[in-house]
Design a protein that fits this description.
By secondary structure, this protein is an alpha/beta fold. It is built from 19 helices and 20 strands. Helix 12 packs parallel to helix 17. Bound molecules: alpha-D-glucopyranose and calcium ion.
């Protein structure tokens, strides 16, 4: 599959559209909205997990990889969705959560019952109740090992205690997971997203980490490239669209994961650019976004992946990240301008853009003020941890309002009707009050809406080989307010200037007026015409 001209749209089924009034989005709800997605112009839909699951981590705790959770619908609904999407030229990508299973999975239950074959599906270490095998921390807080008294052993869980890490060293585990891929492939999906897939290969020896939380021992682990090559080869997915979620990864590894010659994956998600507002690298410590750091990261990753023949998934938002317009834009004073600027910044880069549901409307953070409004396991865990660290309730709630994953999980805003037109029942998460103005109906009739701008960005990618294939080189490297880059392809050039400030900002290397004198003309922007300086959150792309 040509991945360079594609745009992927991520759907969080639980929050997309509810057709039966139970307050949860469902698979028929996605089928019902395919015309909307067609109108937007996206090529593929990545669905986060809808498989059988106790939903402790909203489906990332899978209890049966090849069955549909009744909350979301039936296998027939999946077939209908795949078939109906195809008639509109839209493909499906399913989410493969292969680092761990739910502790409700039949494999884990057999392991718990002491069956040695199934115990070897997971990672166990001997121990006593008071002494976990290592000091590694779970990504959701607390120690990463859980003691099972009946077995006198601990199992590893890098995420929630109900998400037990699989033992990829066991060839039987790898065969089981290949069968899952074969199953969904036979149903006609066109791609896969692999959850935290760079964590699957654990070290030979498990030891305490005296420098960090343990991640350096299992991130981009010793056999990860072999495992991915084997998985891809044995399931024949090298011609499909595949993307791996890479946690705390490195450029060198991402080149290997995504360089076509390696036959591992089509592309990777990396997250370094989404930590520029983590104080001291800590998610729960707030700081203003460091735009200089953002620019440097983009330059390193965009230019570096191009040099090494790798390919990035480019994105700001997903179901784990706060809304970008609230985060790096200004959702009060410049909601439209900043949402458009952020969209263009990513979409004109080298890589395959991913849009997370509602991003194309400029949807904002949840604006919750009460802990009872939150549902996410990570948010609830960290609320307790922050209070234990001595933060006041107000401080802890403020941190959650900025960082919680629930910020992105509020219902899709379809209209100004009750519950944003998402459900006729009670939504599982409350939408923010701004659905009155930020919704698909309002944006359809507004030619200047964020939706119409995203539609144009998608169309431009399809029309312009330079956006798909051009080289990339960063400009304005010393300018602490502006992200700017030049694309070049077949004698043509494209320059993109993005102002990340709520103020007028001059360019350092050029003036926009001088550029027009030199024959550059405007391809797209979020303000009329051109001014001498970049206006608040202005983006302008010039071509020559
Ligand atoms: C990924 C998912 C996230 C989930 C975690 C554990 O980061 O995107 O939602 O909690 O993996 O599966
Ligand atoms: Ca429903």
């Amino acid at each position: 599959m040509n991945i360079q001209n594609k745009v992927v749209y991520q759907i969080y089924p639980k929050s997309f559209y509810d057709t039966n009034g139970d307050g949860l989005g469902d698979l028929p709800g996605i089928t019902a909205k395919l015309d909307y997605l067609k109108e937007l112009g996206v090529d593929l839909l990545w669905l986060t997990p809808f498989f059988v699951s106790p939903q402790n981590d909203n489906g990332y705790d899978v209890a049966d990889y090849c069955a549909v959770d009744p909350r979301f619908g039936t296998m027939e609904d999946v077939d209908t969705l795949i078939r109906t999407a195809k008639t509109r030229g839209i493909g499906l990508m399913f989410d493969m959560v292969f680092n761990h299973t739910s502790t409700e999975h039949a494999w884990f239950k057999r392991a718990l019952a002491g069956d040695p074959d199934y115990m070897d599906y997971y990672i166990w270490r001997d121990g006593t109740p008071d002494a976990p095998p290592t000091n590694w921390e779970s990504k959701f807080g607390g120690n990463a090992w859980e003691y099972v008294p009946a077995l006198g052993k601990y199992y590893l869980h890098l995420f929630d205690v109900t998400q037990a890490d699989l033992n990829w060293e066991n060839p039987r585990v790898r065969e089981e997971l290949k069968n899952v891929i074969r199953f969904w492939k036979a149903k006609g999906v066109e791609g896969f997203r692999f959850d935290v897939v760079n964590l699957i290969s654990k070290p030979e020896v498990f030891e305490d980490d005296h420098e960090g939380d343990g991640r350096r021992f299992y991130t981009d682990g010793r056999h990860v490239h072999e495992f991915l090559k084997e998985l891809t080869r044995d399931t024949g997915i090298d011609t499909m669209m595949t993307v791996g979620e890479m946690s705390s990864t490195s450029l060198e590894n991402c080149i290997r994961y995504s360089n076509p010659a390696e036959k591992e994956l089509s592309m990777v998600f990396s997250f370094h650019h989404l930590k520029i507002d983590y104080k001291g690298g800590v998610k729960w410590a707030l700081q203003k976004p460091d735009i200089m750091a953002l620019k440097k990261l983009f330059a390193v990753w965009q230019e570096g992946m191009a040099a090494g023949g790798g390919w990035n998934a480019v994105f700001w938002c997903n179901h784990d990240q706060p809304r970008v317009v609230s985060r790096f834009g200004d959702d009060e004073r410049y909601p439209k301008e900043s949402a458009k600027m952020l969209g263009a910044c990513i979409h004109l880069m080298r890589g395959t853009p991913y849009i997370y549901q509602g991003e194309e409307l400029g949807m904002t953070n949840a604006q919750y003020t009460d802990i009872a409004q939150y549902k996410d396991v990570e948010s609830l865990n960290y609320y307790k941890i922050l209070l234990n660290e001595g933060k006041s309730k107000e401080e802890a709630l403020h941190i959650l309002s900025v960082r919680s994953r629930d910020n992105s999980r509020t219902p899709m805003q379809w209209s100004a009707a009750a519950n944003a037109g998402f459900t006729s029942g009670t939504p599982w998460l409350t939408p923010p009050a701004n659905f009155n103005t930020i919704n698909t109906e309002a944006e359809f009739v507004d030619a200047d809406s964020v939706f119409r701008f995203y539609q144009k960005l998608i169309r431009l990618r399809k029309e312009q080989p330079i956006i798909q294939k051009g080289d990339i080189f960063f400009l304005e490297r010393e300018n602490a307010s502006v992200v700017a880059y030049e694309r070049a392809y077949a004698g043509r050039k494209l320059r993109v200037y993005c102002n990340f400030r709520a103020a007028n900002v001059p360019l350092m290397e050029d003036s926009l007026a001088a550029l027009t004198d030199e024959g550059w003309s405007k391809l797209i922007g979020n303000y009329d015409g051109l001014a001498v300086d970049l206006r608040p959150y202005e983006v302008v792309a010039l071509e020559k």
